[in-house]
Amino acid sequence: MTELVLYDLPSKGHCRAWSVNTWKTRLVLNFKGIDYQTKWLEYPDVAPTISSLGLLSNPEATPYTVPTVHLPNGEYVMDSRKIVEKLEQLHPSPSLHLDSPSLSKIEELWPKAIIPLRGCLMPKIPRALLNEASLDYFYRTREQRFGMPLDQLEKEHGGDSAWEEARPAIEEVGKLLKAEGGPFILGNTVSYADFMLVSALHMFKRVDPASLYDRVVSIEPAFGVLYNASTAWLERDDH
Question: Which of 64, 62, 61 is nearest to 76 (CA)?
Answer without folding.
Answer: 64
